[in-house]
Design brief:
Among the domains are: 75 residues, no CATH class; 33 residues, no CATH class. It contains five helices and eight strands.
């Protein structure tokens, strides 16, 4: 019958009974040797590059005119890198929001808010939102009564397009 014993306790000299080096010392020696290898340096360089490169989480497909479609061409989509970049729902010209040749930030924001308000859950929606957020668009901040300079129990203030308001109960109103 084999007797099971607990592992020996390390001595003050940094070695366990029997003269073997402690495992943390062994690990530090191995990692010091590995740090000098070309493979580790190449991996570290790749990691630094990966940290600087944003992940593209949206679908981007080539358009016939040489530009790119973000989202679903038959539904919610952005048409970019062309002479007249825009947002549009399918072929509905009434839904079109032009960005201008310089990808005008207020127009991008308007498309973002329009998407959030009217196209949530439709095909291409998530890709368009992801692209617009990467371009700097964001939800409007929610204001409270105090920020509007109103007292408790006041009616919600008149809101501008895209503004949100939260009353004391936490109810959020959006224009």
């Amino acid at each position: 019958m084999r007797q099971i014993t607990s592992p020996p306790k390390p001595s003050s000299a940094g070695r366990v009974a029997g003269g073997r080096p402690r495992s943390d010392q062994k690990t530090s020696r191995l990692s010091a040797r590995a740090d000098q290898s070309g493979t580790v340096q190449a991996l570290q360089l790749l990691q630094r590059k990966a940290d600087q490169t944003p992940l593209q989480l949206y679908t981007k497909t080539r358009a016939d005119d040489g530009g790119w479609f973000i989202g679903d061409q038959a539904a919610c989509h952005l048409h970019v890198e062309i002479s007249k970049p825009h947002f549009k729902y399918g072929k509905d010209k009434g839904s079109r929001i032009d960005f201008g040749t310089n990808m005008n930030q207020p127009r991008l924001q308007r498309a973002y808010e329009e998407l959030k308000a009217n196209y949530r859950g439709l095909s291409g929606y998530a890709d368009c939102i992801e692209y617009l957020e990467e371009m700097g668009c964001a939800d409007a901040p929610v204001k409270t009564l105090i920020e509007y300079g109103l007292e408790r129990g006041s009616y919600p203030p008149r809101l501008n397009r895209g503004e949100q308001f939260a009353d004391e109960s936490g109810t959020v109103y959006t224009h």
